[in-house]
Amino acid sequence: MSIMSRDPLVVGSIVGDVVDYFPASALLRVLYGGRELTCGSELRPSQVSNEPVVQIITGSRGSGALYTLVMVDPDAPSPSNPSKREYLHWLVTDIPEGAGANYGNEVMDYESPRPSAGIHRFAFIVFRQAVRQSIYAPGWRANFNTRDFAACYSLGTPVAGAYFNCQREGGCGGRRYR
């Protein structure tokens, strides 16, 4: 079994739908209400209504590296018709190495997930910035494209990622992977 076939971002189709495969070089910790997210976790909208605590952990301290965090829903408005893929829920730049997203520059404020149909994946993708630069808020949230965004700002490949599944309160069923 290859490393790629066991990668939760591959299994959850984040690799493919949002980004191309990348070898993670940082650890991304996402905590909602003190509960640490694991890739593929099932969370309800009420559990993710408030902005999470996000930490980017690398093995090298003191390098002064900065990071950009993108949170998107590749299943908007519904997994069977993702015509608004990718919906941008949060964009934070200039996050200092070892610090939380709250120390960065919030370019697009956190919009809590509120899926109305089906089970949605919400992906957090982290890029290491080569330099501190002005990154501008897109004019819309729907049809954001993480790959194009990264290319536009020369961010290169991601260094970390995570995702969770979410459906409307009272929804039932599980996600079926390809």
From TrEMBL:
Gene3D superfamilies: PEBP-like. Signal peptide: none annotated. Pfam families: PBP. Belongs to the phosphatidylethanolamine-binding protein family. This is Uncharacterized protein. It comes from the Eukaryota. It comes from Eleusine coracana subsp. coracana. The lineage of its organism: Eukaryota, Viridiplantae, Streptophyta, Embryophyta, Tracheophyta.
